[in-house]
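Morning F.,

Quick status update on the modeling queue. The single chain you submitted on Monday has been processed. Sequence for confirmation:
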Amino acid sequence: MDRAEIVHENFLRRVADGDLPPGSPPSGPLFASEAVGIYRAACLSRALDRQSRAMQKAGQGFYTIGSSGHEGMAAVAAALCPTDTAFLHYRDAAFQIARAAQVPGQSIAWDMLLSFASSSEDPISGGRHKVLGSKALSIPPQTSTIASHLPKAVGAAYSIGAASRHRPEHQEFPDDSIVYCSFGDASANHSTAQGAFNTAQWTSFQSIPLPLLFVCEDNGIGISTKTPRGWIAQSFAHRPGMRYFACNGLDIFETYRVANEAAAWVRHRRKPAFLHVGTVRLYGHAGADMPTTYMPREEVEAEEANDPLLHMVRLLDQAGAMTPAEALSVYEQSCARVARIAEEAITRPRLRTAGEVMASLIPPKRKCKPTNGPTADARAAAFGGDLKALDEPQIMSRLINWALTDLMLEHGEITLMGEDVGRKGGVYGVTQKLAARFGASRVIDTLLDEQSILGLAIGMAQNGFIPMPEIQFLAYLHNAEDQLRGEAATLPFFSNGQYTNPMVVRIAGLGYQKGFGGHFHNDNSVAVLRDIPGLVLACPSNGADAAKMLRECVRLAREEQRLVVFLEPIALYPMRDLHAPKDGGWMQRYPARNERVSLGEVGVHGEGKDLAIVTFGNGVYLSRQAEARLAKAGVKTRIIDMRWLSPLPAQALIDATDGAEHILIVDETRRSGGVAEALMALFSERTSVPHARITAEDSFIATGPAYAATMPSADSIFDAAMALVEAEK
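Structure tokens below.
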């Protein structure tokens, strides 16, 4: 007999015999009727756990990480408002069930069983994953990545106060709401979680509103690794800027009382709190996990004897709310009801095709109020003396700055955040003057933690903002890349498009900075971004394109709810000259505000038919330098600027290279995993034109005189082009 069945039989026998565990008598503000409702939610949660295992054994269910032992979380749900956004721990089925009782029209047992069965009718994920979540219940679905939802919970809480200052058109969270975020004791140790706690405290310490309730469900073990006794209390009881509360999760009366106190403290003071809830874990980690293989049987049985449902039966009896016999009847009826519903749920349709699975990768478009842009007076006030320079050729960094200014004037929901973006104006001055123009509430100097920067953006995006977080250098993204891959990109996928977090992430990157910084300031790998489904990756090569593409990126986020990364080539920020000193060949004028470069639109320079060079970023600049030498050698060239690295603008590239006799791919990213791999495949599969590639080496970038030694140069592009053309003669 497995442990789930043992716990079930023990419950039936002990309740019938009146053999209930000892504990404190019921006390506090929980009414008898509310206590009964919590117990009913707990019984339904337990019945669903048992049914999920039965469904898996029958090949009809696909998820068995349950909530048994954590049913007391239903009392926490009862202490909150159903409009409080809840980022839930994966053991919080009882919480969601209890919240469903607060919102009319819910069919929670049916919904959860559809999720267990991976039915395409599952109302949250559409059959893509077993996740807790519900749009009607203000519960965004979470992935199973450990603790990765904590940074965005901080961002969501911050957004509530921010929305009162700058009201987003698509605001989701009520002004008086709080954000709830739960997790396990093992997850509390994760670096992602620790960063989120630190960010919450750092924010609170400065008296910035952050109505966030962290809830640690402490069952004392993470799969097989025990949490040292007392560790959570010692770690969190005295942290600055975050109030600590604790309760026994086996006692629903105490849990409700303390959760009420914690929620009220957060709601009224608009500061974060940490609620430590003691629980037990029944059955092991998941269906295939046998706890007796790594824990003494006596210890497992002691946990099972402390079954929270048994404690609830005792407390309800002592409170005069329900007799043990009535409680046993509710439990048995719940099990029978779930079994009946499951028989129908397993007959419902499931996803079958790739198209069906992928349908929610791209979020749905949303209606936005039309805007005519800022008035002339508003622009004049914001730009100040810069207004006179708009018609003069400028470097890329300044044109990006002006584009950001116009976009922030036009869309009040745009918020910038990152390290040094405010007072300093960015390491390269790209965001200079923006804090003065728009204030510290829209240009946020964050602490030095990339996970927290992206988490802030994700959370704010869910409340209707258009965040534009800046990652100071591409190499720094790797500290936090899971916030894009595991959280931002998956949210529409796992919610069937019901939840989105549109944003434009600005990243300074790529190589060719002369003698500065080495690898950590000149990372030339974008593979980690290009393979994230649904993510748009843009990379301009000149200032005018940068402004026009940035406008399109904001439009994509605002109107199409897309996740966009805007990769800015650092070496081209200050670039003025192309062929000779002071020729000004790489400076551009600020494009008219109605000009955009649409997603998938490539740039073409020249009409040569001998050779088409396909490239992007710094490669465009270097190819233009090589073009002059190629012309002298009699090779007529056209240069195609990809602009959009993901999704690959395949048809536009095929069209742009049409008629060319040779194709040379110039790729400043690495040979392995670089952009050129996809381009080589594209031209091999869809053309018969001879083609070759020149790429960066599979190497990190050095500092000093060898800063460009591993990457393409104007000379190596010329040599590769001549070799390709002459090979066909």
